[in-house]
Every structure is written in structure tokens, then in C-alpha cells.
Automatic annotation (TrEMBL):
Gene3D superfamilies: P-loop containing nucleotide triphosphate hydrolases
Keyword set includes Transport: yes
Protein's recorded name: ABC transporter ATP-binding protein
GO molecular function, one term: ATP hydrolysis activity
Organism listed in the record: Yoonia rhodophyticola
Transmembrane segments: none
Domain of life: Bacteria
InterPro entries, sorted: AAA+_ATPase (IPR003593), ABC_AA/LPS_Transport (IPR051120), ABC_transporter-like_ATP-bd (IPR003439), BCA_ABC_TP_C (IPR032823), P-loop_NTPase (IPR027417)
Keyword line: ATP-binding, Nucleotide-binding, Transport
Amino acid sequence: MNAQAPFVTPDGRTIGDVLMDMRNITLRFGGVEAIKDISFDIREGEIRAIIGPNGAGKSSMLNVISGFYNPQEGEVWFRGAKRPPMKPYQVARLGIARTFQNIALFEGMSVLDNVMTGRLTHMKTGMFSQALWMGKAEREEVQNREFVENIIDFLEIQAIRKTPVGRLPYGLKKRVELARALAAEPKLLLLDEPMAGMNVEEKEDMSRFILDVNDEFGTTIALIEHDMGVVMDLSDRVVVMDYGRKIGDGTPDEVRNNEQVIDAYLGVAHD
Ligand SMILES: Nc1ncnc2c1ncn2[C@@H]1O[C@H](COP(=O)(O)OP(=O)(O)OP(=O)(O)O)[C@@H](O)[C@H]1O
């Protein structure tokens, strides 16, 4: 990848080269154009938000990034290479992990076991050696377990590591989902409405953890969020979508003062 001029955010943070480059993406569902010729990039180490009214195409965009949908037109570039159409598990192996708008955890399993499932992409030994519990499989299991325990500590969920997820309050379930995504050691972490349905205190906790993950692990984060206070506080840069088109792209201040964005989305109520 060519070195590019570093991008310095208004609060003085320097963010790196382009990690993900979406070029002229168009996605159709039959006659519906969910994404219309959108281009934007995600730079190494930044927190990038995608915002817009309901039905604007945000989830569709996240699904293109995660490989769940393959666009009819346009190119997806990741770490300096054009990504061919792929299945989500192949995209996960490239280092892209995600959380979902509606929590997708195994309710009957413990927190620890749920977070361990996020580690599956890193398990290298085959079924055969695992079945025979050969040395290599054992070493790998120990290392993966250690990695997962560190994440559990980091997100302060040690006290509930043995608790079945189904018994946890909503805010903690969201944190477990974040832990599971982090267990995959992603280069790019996608968060689909991480604050949806949370109370003020839970939102504050989640915001802090998102910032800590970005700081401590240097993980690049792209998120969809409707809470504008949270978006403006957390993000380095924001893409704004409306009816499948991109209508704004820039720092939180630039986006906040963009007339088209104000008319389509922010209005008065969100100020
Ligand atoms: N699987 C699908 N099949 C057909 N149409 C779809 C599909 N997924 C999304 N759409 C349509 O694409 C458009 C964009 O939807 P999308 O869910 O991406 O928007 P969004 O911005 O994420 O909305 P929200 O904020 O409500 O989650 C909508 O018109 C939606 O009805």
C-alpha cells in the first residue's frame, strides 16, 4: 500500500493509512437500490461512524464490509488489496469481526464459552489432533484460553464468566458480544448499533470500552449508531447516508455543520 499523508483529527489524534477502501459501491435487492455508488475509506486506528435515517442503507453497508452481501458494482479494498467476493467466514479470517444489532449469542452457554467461540478463526489444529488431545492442540487451547481471559478482564466481566448469557441484563450481553468479537483479534471491528436499547449508564460504560479497545489494542472500529451524542463523542470521522446515497463525510464538526446532513437527518431535534 502506498504511504499516505497522515490524517490529524481536530483533537490532535493522528490516524494512519487507508485500511479499508470502498469504491463506488452499489448494492441492489431486486428493484431496490440500498446503496448507490458510495465511496469512502476507513483509516488504520480510527473510529469511523456510519449514520443516517432509517432505511438509509447503513446495515447494508456494514454487511458489504463483512462479506454478508456482495455488491453488484464497485470494489472493496482491504489492506491494499482488492478483495474478491467472499463468504463471511473468509472475511472473518482476513481480520474483520462484528457485533449485531440484535444480540446473537448462545443464551444457554456461559460467558466464557461464548467468548471462546470468537476464537474459532484462530484454531489451527485439526479435528483429529483435537480429538486425540495431542500436544499441539493442548498448547493451542491454553493460549486461546489465556487470550480470552485477558479480554474478559479488560472488559470487566470476570465476575460473570461462568454465568449463562441468558441470565444477564441487556447491557452486559452487549459487552459479552463485544468480548466475543475482540476474541477474534480483529484488525477491523464492526459494531452495529452498540448502544441500541441501553440506558444512560450502560451507554457511558460501552462508550468507555469502545474508546479503550481503540486505544489499547489499536483496533480500527466502524460503527453504526443512532445516538448522536455518542457518535459525535466517539468518532474521528463520520459518513452520512440517506436513501442509499452518501450525503456527508468528515469530522463530527464538519458533518454537524453540513446543511444537507442537517436537512436530511440531524434537523433540530438531534442538535
Ligand atoms: N435483504 C433485503 N432484501 C430486500 N431489501 C432490503 C434488504 N435489506 C435491506 N433492504 C432495503 O434496503 C434499504 C436499506 O436498508 P438498511 O437496513 O441497510 O438501512 P439502515 O440504514 O440500516 O436502516 P435502520 O437504521 O432502520 O437499520 C431499505 O429500503 C431496505 O428495505
